C-alpha cells in the first residue's frame, strides 16, 4: 500500500471480497495489520484495530449483503478504517456499560469452565468489544446504497514522514 495515496483524504481500498469467500475476517486482519504497520502504527494500537475491524467484517458478512470493501483514509486528526457493505440499514447500537466490559461481579465469582463457556458462547458482544478496543471512536455512516462501519485511529507519532506533513 502506498500511504501517499491517502494525502487527499480519499479512501484507499485495501481489499474487496464477495459473499461466501472463505477466510474473509482472517484476510482482513492480515491486510489491515500490514497497512497500519506500513503507516507507522505498532504494538497494541495495531492489534486492537485489527481485532475491532475483524469483528466489523464478521458482522458485515453475517448481517449484510456483499460485495464488501475494506477502506483506509486520512482525516486531519485520524486514520479511518471502514468496512463497506451493500446494506444501507444502520444497525441498532446497543447501550454500553460505563464500567469495564467484562469486569467480575462480586457476587458471581467462580462458576468454573461451564460458566466461562456459557459467556463465550453468547452472541451480541461484538459491538461492545469494538467499543472497548477503540475507546468509543467508531460508528456507522450511510453511503449511496450502502453503509460503512468505521473505526478511527489517532495519527501515529511517527506518521509525519509517511503522510508528508
UniProtKB/TrEMBL annotation:
It holds the Pfam family HATPase_c_2. Signal peptide: none annotated. Residues 26-134 form the Histidine kinase/HSP90-like ATPase domain. This is Histidine kinase/HSP90-like ATPase domain-containing protein. Keywords: Kinase, Serine/threonine-protein kinase, Transferase. GO terms for molecular function: protein serine/threonine kinase activity. It comes from the Bacteria. The keyword Kinase applies. PANTHER family: ANTI-SIGMA-F FACTOR RSBW (PTHR35526:SF3), ANTI-SIGMA-F FACTOR RSBW-RELATED (PTHR35526).
Amino acid at each position: 500500500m502506498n500511504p501517499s495515496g491517502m494525502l487527499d483524504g480519499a479512501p484507499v481500498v485495501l481489499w474487496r471480497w464477495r459473499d461466501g469467500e472463505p477466510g474473509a475476517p482472517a484476510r482482513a486482519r492480515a491486510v489491515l495489520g500490514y497497512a497500519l504497520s506500513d503507516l507507522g502504527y505498532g504494538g497494541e494500537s495495531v492489534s486492537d484495530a485489527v481485532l475491532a475491524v475483524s469483528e466489523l467484517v464478521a458482522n458485515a458478512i453475517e448481517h449484510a449483503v456483499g460485495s464488501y470493501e475494506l477502506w483506509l483514509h486520512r482525516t486531519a486528526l485520524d486514520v479511518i478504517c471502514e468496512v463497506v457493505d451493500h446494506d444501507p440499514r444502520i444497525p441498532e447500537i446497543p447501550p454500553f456499560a460505563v464500567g469495564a466490559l467484562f469486569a467480575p461481579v462480586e457476587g458471581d465469582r467462580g462458576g468454573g469452565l461451564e460458566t466461562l463457556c456459557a459467556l463465550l458462547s453468547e452472541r451480541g458482544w461484538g459491538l461492545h468489544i469494538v467499543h472497548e478496543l477503540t475507546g468509543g471512536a467508531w460508528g456507522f455512516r450511510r453511503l449511496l446504497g450502502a453503509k460503512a462501519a468505521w473505526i478511527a485511529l489517532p495519527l501515529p507519532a511517527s506518521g509525519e514522514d509517511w503522510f508528508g506533513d
